[in-house]
Amino acid sequence: MTAHSSSSRPVFTDLSIPVQRRSPGVQFEQWLHQEGVGILSRRIRALPGDSSRDRMVNYLRWLTGRRRLRSEDVPGGCFLSNEFYRMSVHQGTHVDAPFHYGPTCEGQPAKKVLDLPLEWFCGPGIVLDVRECGGTVTERDVKEALRRSEQQPGPGTVVLFRTDSDLRLGTPAYHTESTAVSPEAVDHLLDLGVKVLGTDCWSFDGPAREMVERFFSTGDSSALWPAHMHGREREFIQIEGLGGLRNLPDGPFTFMAFPIALADAGAAWCRAVARSAGSPR
Q: Which of 1, 87, 112, 209 stands the most exposed, by the fewest C-beta atoms within 10 Å?
């Protein structure tokens, strides 16, 4: 009798939210295929590597029509598409580096995106269900969620807060009814060796309006972005704007969310993905 080993196909779950062309704060431009020929025709007047003389000669040739492209010159009568997005590095699913929180962290120059070790962004993931926390995740909430999950994070673990705020994406409530994560909750996880935390809210600090109104009514500056400000005292990474944490299958998973390599930036967009074991083939 011959034994046959069963293999399983890994399951990948997208945990990112797409950046929409009509999202607030986004400027979008698109060159469609039919427009591409004319745009290319104008742009080949000066190509990378051209000398000043080349540019002058090519421009004169373009003016006289000898260096222009027509639709019949390219396969299918159309060229390539191109898209341009102008937006903040905090748009959509993104990674906050310590430099976003302040110029220093733990008394040292704060790390920017390109200073962050890539190994921080790939590791075992844990989802903490904090939907019933009442608007702010406390240390007690974290301990209770860990108890329910029967998991214990450690160095290299990525901890994700599930609030289901992403179900309100595209409505004002996405920003006005989000859940904050307290510095004490962050500290508890950092004490366990965790470096990277994520949330399916737009921010770790809850609704901006509430923070600002609380400051003006009390004069207490600690009301303003406390989780972010805490990143000046202790080094940790926030991943904000996650989505679909409820779609993760049961069982362990590996979390991956590598920030785009943006020089001199305190944050960067990312594609967050969970990799988990699938069913045998």
A: 1
Q: State how far the Cα of 281 lies from the Cα of 274, in Å rounded to an integer.
A: 20
Give yes or no: residues 32 and 101 share one domain: no
Q: How far is CA 262 from CA 79, 115, 198, 217, 267, in A?
A: 29, 10, 20, 38, 8
Extract the tokens encoding 125: 């993931």
**Structural contact between residues 45 and 67, judged by C-beta atoms closer than 8 angstroms:** yes
Q: Strands 82-86, 196-199: parallel, antiparallel or unpaired by DSSP?
A: unpaired
Same domain, 187 and 263: yes
Task: Note down the domain range covering 200.
Answer: 89-276
Domain boundary among 51, 85, 119: 85
Amino acid at 219: G
Q: Are strands 158-162 and 122-129 parallel, antiparallel or unpaired?
A: parallel
Burial code (b: 16+ CB inside 10 Å, e: under 16) for 135-151 equals: ebbbbebbebbbeeeeb
**Do 93 and 149 lie in a common domain?**
yes
**For residue 176, what is the enclosing H or E element?**
helix 173-176
**Does residue 171 sit in the same domain as residue 225?**
yes
What are the tens digits of pLDDT across the range 108-158? 999 999 999 999 999 999 999 999 999 999 999 999 999 999 999 999 999
Q: What share of the chain is helix, strand, coil (3-state, %, to 5)?
A: 30, 25, 45
pLDDT tens sequence across 13-53 = 999 999 999 888 999 999 999 888 888 888 888 878 889 99
State how many domains the chain has. Answer: 2
* 39 inside domain: yes
